[in-house]
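Please decode residue identities from the backbone states below.
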């Protein structure tokens, strides 16, 4: 049997992988967050597998949080981020301006999930929750409004609510006395009227207090409720990333506040790109990273286990035995420079699942193209993966990896495109501070030595370059050695996965 008759590695994108739950591999980051009641962040680089973990948790939540607890999963692929700009507290510190709107959303999601859970299981609803349900019905015409209802025009009507002068204690009379006003209020109306914004913010604060009181009264009986957020970086682009950074900082602040306030009864968990978290204006960001989160990081063993779990799923569909290691899939045990196939692939990755999956898919596709070559008189059965196909697939994979880095950093650090152009113009796999400064300056970007050091630090932090330390004769990139820090070295080496995309040559080749 040809290996091409059965081998697959699944989709590169978790969003489009319908088989993900059949071969999901957990490296432990999710468990570390859930088991620690003070944790609420799952951080990882683009391609590290955050959405895969989110989707698996969404479909298998009982495995992690227990069958009696509740999971609310919120993915923000189609979300009106602009709503938060109408709910912010302009008098607060920048990192806190959007905290109130996120607290409102998290509390509403928790209450509606708990009410639905009780009703589904035919359990009595505590009095405080019944009153909260009446309030939500009054405000949104629905006792369990969706996230999209919450942030739709219904929300804007809160800017015209007339609250009883004595406040609300959720008694029937008070709820009935809420006057929502007539007609619909639009986003544009509120965005242009500071008075309506102030009323909306004030009413939101009062409603948050009411919802908190309802939860506090019911908390002794409540199941633990996990409100999980994914794709909060959907608006992270060159146009709107500055506004998005404040909105996301508000979510992190709200999650931190609610996590500490409710002692595990309500557990927000935010899946967030590591590079985005690093740019947020948040007090004690380093403390939050260390004490309240887990980094979705992979080592060689866990990465290969993930890939093999995928490959063996497809092997089992054809009745084949499990593959024990990556190298046994290839027709040669050594590639150029006597590197094993598995290490050759790994050295061209950023130690992320997406990288290896993409590279293997391109190798398989390259071989399928060769198998169906209309000009070939021979049919290749390919009992194993071809080492030559690795070299042929590498160029396309390298270009993909380069684009991944552009997508990751293009918004907050647009200089990355000029830096890559400078590396490409230099033409060598090795580069110095002087060379980088010279090449960047040629592009019309002033670049002193200090500027070049900052550029090199940025490239190093993202594993684009590495260095040798001490008497070592091998290059160290941060993706392979995450504990190392930047060093102002004499010479740096471009990551092997980017060499083809940048058309770089070894120094001796370039000088020959």
């Amino acid at each position: 049997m040809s290996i091409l008759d059965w081998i697959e590695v699944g989709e590169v994108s978790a969003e489009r992988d319908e088989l993900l739950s059949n071969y999901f591999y957990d490296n432990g980051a999710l468990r570390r967050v859930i088991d620690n009641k003070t944790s609420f962040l799952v951080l990882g680089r683009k391609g590290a597998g955050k959405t895969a973990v989110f989707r698996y948790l969404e479909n298998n939540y009982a495995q992690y949080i227990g069958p009696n607890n509740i999971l609310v999963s919120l993915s923000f692929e189609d979300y009106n981020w602009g709503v938060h700009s109408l709910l912010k507290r302009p008098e607060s510190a920048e990192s806190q301006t959007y905290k109130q709107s996120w607290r409102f959303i998290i509390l509403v999601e928790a209450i509606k999930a708990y009410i639905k859970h009780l009703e589904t299981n035919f359990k009595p609803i505590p009095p405080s929750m019944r009153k909260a349900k009446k309030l939500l019905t009054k405000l949104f015409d629905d006792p369990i409004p969706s996230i999209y209802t919450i942030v739709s025009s219904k929300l804007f009507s809160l800017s015209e609510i007339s609250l009883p002068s004595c406040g609300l204690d959720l008694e029937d009379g008070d709820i009935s006395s809420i006057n929502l006003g007539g007609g619909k209020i639009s986003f544009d109306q509120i965005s242009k009227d500071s008075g309506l914004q102030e009323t909306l913010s004030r009413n939101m604060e009062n409603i948050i207090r009411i919802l908190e009181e309802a939860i506090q009264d019911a908390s002794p009986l409540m199941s633990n409720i996990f409100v999980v957020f994914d794709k909060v970086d959907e608006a992270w682009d060159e146009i709107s990333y500055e506004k998005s950074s404040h909105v996301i900082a508000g979510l992190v602040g709200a999650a931190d506040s609610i996590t500490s306030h409710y002692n595990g009864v309500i557990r927000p968990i935010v899946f967030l790109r590591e590079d985005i978290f690093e740019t947020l204006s948040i007090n004690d960001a380093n403390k939050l990273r260390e004490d309240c989160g887990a980094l979705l990081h992979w080592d060689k063993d866990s990465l290969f286990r993930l890939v093999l779990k995928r490959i063996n799923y497809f092997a089992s569909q054809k009745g084949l035995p499990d593959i024990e290691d990556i190298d046994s899939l290839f027709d040669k045990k050594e590639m150029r420079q006597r590197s094993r196939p598995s290490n050759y692939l790994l050295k061209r990755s950023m130690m992320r699942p997406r990288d290896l999956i993409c590279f293997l898919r391109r190798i398989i596709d390259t071989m399928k193209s060769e198998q169906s070559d209309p000009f070939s008189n021979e049919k290749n059965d390919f009992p194993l993966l071809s080492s030559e196909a690795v070299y042929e697939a590498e160029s396309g994979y390298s270009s993909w990896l380069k684009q991944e880095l552009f997508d990751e950093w293009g918004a907050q650090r647009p200089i990355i495109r000029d830096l890559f152009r400078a590396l490409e113009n230099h033409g060598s796999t090795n580069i110095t501070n002087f060379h980088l400064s010279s090449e960047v300056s040629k592009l019309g970007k002033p670049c002193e030595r200090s500027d070049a050091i900052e550029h090199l630090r940025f490239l190093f932090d993202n594993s684009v370059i590495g260095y040798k330390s001490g008497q070592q004769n091998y290059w160290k990139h941060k993706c392979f050695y995450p504990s190392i820090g930047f060093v102002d070295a004499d010479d740096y080496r471009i990551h092997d996965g980017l060499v083809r995309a940048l058309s770089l040559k070894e120094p001796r080749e370039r000088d020959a």
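Observation: Residues 80-225 form one domain.
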